[in-house]
Amino acid sequence: MTSIGSFIRKTPAPSLRAYFEQAGIELPAAVNWNAPEPDIVQPLLQAVDDMGAESRGRIILDAGRVTAMATEAGQIALYSVFANRTFLDGLAGPHARSLWAFINEEVRFRQAEEVRYTDERRRGRSWDGFVVEASCNVRKDPASIGAFRAAILERFDSANVHVDIFERQRLTFDGQPSDLVQVTVYREGMPEDALKFEATTLVRKVTKPVFEAAVTYERATGVIEVVGNNRESREDMALFVARDLLGIEFQGQKLPLRRYDLSVLLLPFDFPCDLQDGIESVTLKQVRLMPFDYPGDRVTLECMRGADHTIWEMADLRFGHCNPLLGGWVATQAKLVIRFHPREGASRGRVLSLVVTMPHGCNLKDLTPEEQLIGSKYLRRWGILAEVDGATGD
After folding, report:
1. Distance CA 107, CA 113 (A)
2. Beta strands in the chain (DSSP E)
3. Tens-digit pLDDT profile for residues 152-174
4. Cβ atoms of residues 56 and 63 within 8 Å
5. How confident is the model over 102-136, as pLDDT tens digits?
6. Fewer CB atoms inside 10 Å of the end CB: C or N, the chain?
7. Which residues contact 99 (CB under 8 A, 6 or more apart)?
8. Other Cβ atoms within 10 Å of 270 Cβ, number
């Protein structure tokens, strides 16, 4: 009941009423929609708990999808596919926005889910980026989409393929929107058998799984990004988009990797921040060092929670003239902790931890889209994330 409880408690009563009416789920008279909102929650929770398995199962699934899109990452994705953002702003909070889109804009809601799926996997293990010709228009005519679908069908030996093509935006590190076209592909996989219950009997059922992949094209930069199962299929997907939907030649040029430089952290640094980002403090919590003359060794300096000195002060106090930060060693990994001022109504501010490993590693890919934006912005500002020719600005 956790997701249902969160769904009901955090969603305004009028929105909940619209959901149950749209779903055609009858509720007992004990749920009085005209009562004050606090008096609606318990009767509604009890009504859902008393429902039959089919209705209750549907609510559980719907509540899970709506609640997932009411998170910070979900809201960013939702706003990215809606042109009328003023209307979304006027709705009473993230759960109301998410549920309204779920009820009234089924296609847009699914596209927002696709955006979240794509952006949460950017620069991770299932991601690849390529550089192609910029300023191209994505073709959406039946012939071009048909050629793209045919290529997917043949490449994956699939019986069915569904393609979504839609406009969206993504914020760059400096807070400016970047216009993208996203192509999401659902393809039917090979048959599999799985154990399932029919009433109380355990049986084997043949199913055909559906696999999802996504491609984005940024017209301003000519960057194609692909999220998919394996490297070979990602490159093929980029080729098909370039050839069939952009009408250009694909040469397989990879997007340059981000490059990090931790040398700025060897000396005391004050981590300048913009007031509007609400950052309370930035602390270098840990730095790992390797000697120039013996790459097999490592030394890690760490200030635990509650320490009343900085990494640099600790190194000077403990090592004196042998301080590895003063020369002869290179920083290979660092952990930075960014603390934010509490938001209105919150007792504590959120904390963002960034772990950077030389030369290309960072946990940015594991963070929410908003955390990625703030992390990328300041890693660049502080000179830790180096600019690379051909790399995107987000």
Report:
1. 10
2. 127-131, 161-171, 177-188, 192-198, 201-207, 210-218, 223-227, 259-260, 279-291, 299-302, 329-340, 351-357, 361-362, 385-386
3. 999 999 999 999 999 999 877 55
4. no
5. 999 999 999 999 999 998 888 788 999 999 999 99
6. N
7. 11, 15, 16, 18, 19, 66
8. 7
